[in-house]
Amino acid sequence: MDSQRAAAVRAIAERHAGSRGPLLPILHAVVEELGHVAEEDVATIADVLNLSRADVHGVVTFYHDFRRTPPVAHRVELCRAEACQAVGAQAVFDAVTQRYAGDEDVEIGQVFCFGNCALGPSGTIDGRLRGRLTAELVDAELEASR
Ligand code: FES
């Protein structure tokens, strides 16, 4: 176990431990400050909060927002909800996931509505909301940022 990381996780957990319902704020802070919730972080957080590892693990794995692996260089999230599906989101998703399969610098995720339905297919590229997406627009933006 990385003792520096364990100390950082413990400090985050202790900072929130006295608050009401501290587990979710702790997990958000770990992701924000350290990039992801590593498997070994679960034991540290459980120890500080006097919870079982299973309790913490269950929460970490239930919510997709709590990354469990280190972040990659670029993240594309594509909307797969109905309004975007009606204007071609499936084809964009299929093309983008196929094109970047095996690319360790690009992670493709799915979201079910960004609230940008009128401009579908919608998605985010490195956190920037985009509308009227095509696979070619995703490629161009990723290439420009590499
Ligand atoms: S359905 Fe895609 S943004 Fe709402």
TrEMBL record:
UniProt-recorded name of the protein: Formate dehydrogenase
Positions of transmembrane segments: none
Keywords: Iron, Iron-sulfur, Metal-binding
Gene3D superfamilies named among the record's database cross-references: Glutaredoxin (3.40.30.10), NADH-quinone oxidoreductase subunit E (1.10.10.1590)
One Pfam family of this chain: 2Fe-2S_thioredx
Signal sequence coordinates: none
SUPFAM superfamilies: Thioredoxin-like
A GO MF term: metal ion binding
InterPro entries, A to Z: NADP_DH_HndA-like, NuoE_N, Thioredoxin-like_sf
Superkingdom per UniProt: Bacteria
